[in-house]
Amino acid sequence: MNNNKKKYEIIINNGIEEGFQVLSLDREPFISSLAGYLKKPKKIFLGMGDFLEIGDFNNLIDTVLLDNDVAKLEGILDKNNRKLSEEGEIPFSFFKLAVYYPDFLLKDVPIECITTIGKKARLFPGAEIFTKYIKEYNPLILTAIPFEISMEYAKRLGLSRNNLISTEYKKAVVNNKPVFAGDIVRFISANRRIIEIEKTMAEMDLREDDVLYIGRGEAGSSTFSFYNSIAFNPSRNIIDKSKISLYGSTLESLLVFFNFNSEIEKHLLSDEFEENLPSLVVISNSKEKSEELISLELEHRQMQENIVGLRIEHSEDSYASLEREINILLGASTINMSAVRNHIFTRMKRYIDDPQSLVKLIYSLARDRYKNISSG
What is the CATH number of domain 1-376? Predict the structure, then answer.
């Protein structure tokens, strides 16, 4: 008998008073039991930010479009906006994605610049294979990431326009080129995600137990609370909101929950899949969790984040290679990138020595704009 055989853990959480039960299983029973904890959904909703992608687009936009002084200004903005967000009702992502990007950074910039970045920015490890296996549920991505980037991600995942609801910016045509015009058409924040899910459920005549939300970021915190959900390597404020938490180094890890009627058991039991198995799965019958369980989950989260970082670092597409490829593509286009960068710098240089004036201006715009979309 091999006592060193690797075990896989499922924790059943029954709340603070009743505690939690740890099931330590061999690989095959671990895999075969997990789909039994989840009703087969009719529709899946997905987050995107830091879930289907890794956030490269933020850094690539800075690198491709910004002067170093303007890039440093953005760091100051992020710090101030984070503080304003914590003190008020406006989500942090709204300041950046619904005000700073459309009104200050990207206004008058050719849309092709951003679609090119979306074509090259990296997806999260395992995103393509995970999406391939859940296509039968006609997944709908809900994201605050601008359409021109998120649509490119969706295409690379084999999905279409019908699988995406994202933030959209106003556009115009200047010198026969489509450019960003400032302001937004739509912003998909946490509460707007719920509205879009409810709308889809009504159109498809779905009940709450027919749908499943999967993601990991703070922007979806309220969404995790409202619906059946799986949180992938969730942040601390999500850990006690989702019914299921899964800790893995690739989105393929999530496939252990989609083995209904042993449909993909052969794939899950293959030698190639073994390194993709989650290190921990937590099933909660109560949203209350003991500090002991939360600490255990955070340990697994940190461990998997470290592995994810190594996977990304040693992937075939390095960040430097992406940057080079984007600059080559843009250089071969009809866009005068030097003129674009100079235009942005000219607009932003007035704020470099007075960043607080930009913080105040962005906050003023964000307050009015967020009020309008929240009541709309």
Answer: 3.40.50.1000
